[in-house]
Design a protein that fits this description.
With 441 residues, the chain is of the alpha+beta class. Helices cover 51% and strands 14% of the residues. It has a 4-stranded mixed sheet, covered by helices on one side.
Length: 441
């Protein structure tokens, strides 16, 4: 039996290197917005490629992928320890070869794509030579696949795609789009009505209605897309016809956990800044760190972070143990539910303790708070995951069909009296003997 909360001593130097590398080289660059320039930009290549080369020299490139795909094949626990560091710096995932949505898109192409699709898109994505978009949600139905209206109709040997997609991740610089479309609207299984397609961004009929930013972002990378009679060959189909839902769940299960891992890093950063402010800010009666209400906020934040981090690490450990996301569905749903609230609470306290500076655009807290709401929506809303979690928990229970439940105290006492009747008789005899001895006095 082993319950070990220590990092492998052989792995700790890697984590120490990541900490120093992020602090000294990646975080300063992240404040320049060079990452938004796109992979084809000469400035991007000049700034980012040398950093990526250093990561590769350390054997830390694309750690979530197996060696056959140029990665390290690390388990989820190691990935959790890495990602909670990368989560502190916005540019870090690009530098380490694990940026969304490219990582998830590459994984499903690797798993379900044809050899031609892999040759065309997989390796360029893995090498950060191109980027991709994930075109799933729709303006009228959000992320509910049963409400999707974008269609793909087969005409000869071509698919003709029509419809609109809202909030297509990575649309601004994408060279290929992963598109969900209804191909079999009358299928008896509603989850077999959709298929997934790889659509080159420059295909005729692919239109960006507008780019959308998160919160106060002026230059968003998400896209409000329109597909107007977009024609792609039959083999643009990713996986089998009607398999979009299954492929999507394969992609999103790991993505949800990795979001949680990086959110740990964001929460740790907010708590760190909160504490630094508390010990630095002076009032006429002393530091705000000496005020009990501030201490309460710091204590609550630390407790929430530690609880959440342990839940994430335990989920990662279970994924490594079972190697089957279906067996860890309950745990993944739990971290997805916990994530936005923990993030929101800690970021909000950090903002508040910084006062007027905290709500300004000169600090990161407003984006963090908005980010917490994003985490409650991305990869499925919190409410859906609560339902999933509850259903998974309730599967292990069976109903009591009597008028009163089996744990009704009168029932429990009656059963105990029957089981221990002999002991109770002895106890009564002891009491009688004890009472007689008292009377004799």
């Amino acid at each position: 039996m082993a319950w070990d909360f220590e990092t492998d001593p052989d792995f700790q130097p890697k984590l120490d290197w990541i900490d120093q590398f992020l602090e000294n080289e990646v975080e300063p660059l992240s404040h320049t917005n060079i990452g938004y320039a796109g992979t084809k930009s000469k400035t991007y290549q000049k700034a980012i490629r040398p950093l990526q080369a250093k990561v590769k020299e350390q054997g830390l490139w694309a750690c979530h992928l197996g060696p056959e795909l140029g990665g390290q094949g690390f388990g989820q626990v190691k990935l959790a320890l890495i990602n909670e560091r990368l989560g502190r710096v916005g540019l870090a995932p690009v530098v380490f070869g694990c940026q969304a949505p490219d990582t998830g898109n590459a994984e499903i192409i690797a798993h379900y794509g044809t050899q031609e699709q892999k040759d065309k898109y997989l390796w360029p994505l893995l090498n950060n030579e191109i980027t991709s978009g994930y075109s799933m949600t729709e303006p009228q139905g959000g992320s509910d696949p049963l409400g999707f209206q974008t269609s793909a109709k087969l005409e000869g040997d071509e698919w003709v795609i029509n419809g609109e997609k809202w909030f297509t991740s990575g649309a601004r610089n994408a060279e290929v789009l992963v598109v969900y479309a209804v191909t079999d609207p009358d299928h008896k299984d509603p989850y077999k009505r959709m298929s997934m397609f790889l659509v080159p961004r420059k295909t005729k009929g692919v239109e960006v209605i507008r780019y959308v930013g998160v919160g106060t972002e002026r230059e968003g990378s998400e896209g409000y897309m329109r597909y107007n009679n977009v024609r792609v060959p039959y083999d643009a189909l990713l996986g089998g016809r009607g398999d979009a839902f299954v492929i999507g769940q394969t992609r999103l299960g790991g993505g949800r956990v990795h979001h949680a891992m990086r959110t740990v890093g964001q929460c740790a950063k907010a708590l760190d800044l909160m504490c630094r402010r508390a010990v630095s800010r002076q009032t006429k009666t002393g530091r705000i760190a000496d005020y009990q209400m501030v201490q309460e906020q710091i204590a609550d934040s630390w407790i929430q972070l530690e609880q959440f981090r342990l839940l994430v690490l335990q989920t990662a450990w279970r994924i490594d143990k079972y190697k089957d996301y279906r067996k860890v569905r309950k745990d993944i749903a739990a971290v997805k539910v916990a994530m936005p609230k923990v993030y929101h609470d800690i970021a909000s306290r950090a903002l508040h303790i910084h006062g007027a500076l905290g709500v300004s655009n000169e600090m990161p807290f407003t984006q963090m708070v908005i980010g917490s709401y994003v985490m409650g929506i991305a990869d499925g809303p919190t409410e859906v995951h609560k339902v999933t979690l509850a259903k998974q928990i309730l599967r292990n229970y069976r109903p009591d069909n009597d008028l009163f439940p089996s744990y009704h105290l009168p029932k429990v006492r009656e059963a105990a009296h029957e089981r221990y009747a002999d002991l109770l008789t002895e106890l009564k005899d002891e009491w009688k003997s004890h009472a007689a001895s008292i009377d004799a006095l």
